[in-house]
Amino acid sequence: MVTVDRRTLLKAGVTATAAGALGMTTTGTAGAAVPEPAIHPTSDWGARPAAGTIVVENHKPTYIVVHHAVDPPMNDDFSLARAYYVSRYIQNLHMDKNGWIDSGQQFTNSRGGFITEGRHRSLEILRGGTQHVQGANVGNHNSEVIGIENEGLYSTVDVPPALWNSLVSLVAYIASQYGIAPEFIKGHRDFNSTECPGQVLYNRLPELRTAVGRVLGVPVARAEAQWPLLKPGDTGRQVQLAQQFLRASGFGVPTDGVFGQSTKDAVAALSVQAGLPRHTCTATKVTDETGFLGADIWPLIVPADRSAAAWRADLARA
């Protein structure tokens, strides 16, 4: 039986009673251990030294977060050498362009199914099962998450079978080490207004939770509804509701249910006003994500007369 600490459950709005129904307890650590998959440490792929101190959070992560990475452009090289190249490429991008001290993600998963350590010390600390290395992959939530970059852009194409299988193995191992229930496997867009991890891969997250639950030997409860991601060009009731909320917040947008330029400009302005971090997933290289309306924007505009969970559920039905 996998167990989850009470802090994690309460933070996610899961009561002790609900935890029992999920086959979890609120104290202790994971029961049956999941074997560690082959994970190649930073020393294997020639990582640069970190440019600053690696921060180790003195608690377990609450969420496991799935990303995709458009850079370097994906191809059909499924070798270990390619996986090492991808890891070096991402580290260089994160350090030289984003100005981070190291790779932003804790782990990287290649299209050939090879797993590498991303940020230094991530593997060492994961093996301990009580702390986690703070990354830089989810804006305003890096103390809560452990992130996995998956090589490739998965907005319109599916992941290769090898990548999928290694993702299941890695996520199951992380969940086992930290006592994280499958319901807490998320996509980057569940926290920030970004396409990441791509619509195709994001749509497979329920399948990932089920597969991980099977490895862990626990039932998987239905995950809570998430904030929808709206993008310029979208139409429909969700867009119309967002426009109504934006108007109530002082933005002069139409309420025609069409996510046009004025709505995009309003969302972008609100993001700046709120001081939200600009999302740095490399998918922005092929898609301008400025003005996307997602998980960090909705809480700023929905009326305060209802809980976030209630609004998410209603928007999912809209």
Secondary structure: elements and pairs:
Blueprint: H1 6-11, H2 16-21, E1 39-40, E2 56-57, E3 63-69, H3 80-96, E4 107-109, E5 115-117, H4 122-128, E6 132-133, E7 145-151, H5 161-178, E8 185-187, H6 199-203, H7 205-216, H8 237-248, H9 261-273, H10 298-301, H11 308-317
Describe the structure.
It comes from Amycolatopsis plumensis. Residues 58-199 form the N-acetylmuramoyl-L-alanine amidase domain. Residues 1-32 form the signal peptide. This is N-acetylmuramoyl-L-alanine amidase. Residues 236-277 form the Peptidoglycan binding-like domain. It is a single chain. The protein is 35% helix and 9% strand. It is of the alpha/beta class. The strands form two sheets. A six-stranded mixed sheet has the order 1-5-4-7-3-8, with helices on both faces. A two-stranded antiparallel sheet has the order 2-6. The radius of gyration is 19 Å and the shape is globular. It starts with 5 loop residues before the first helix and ends with a helix.
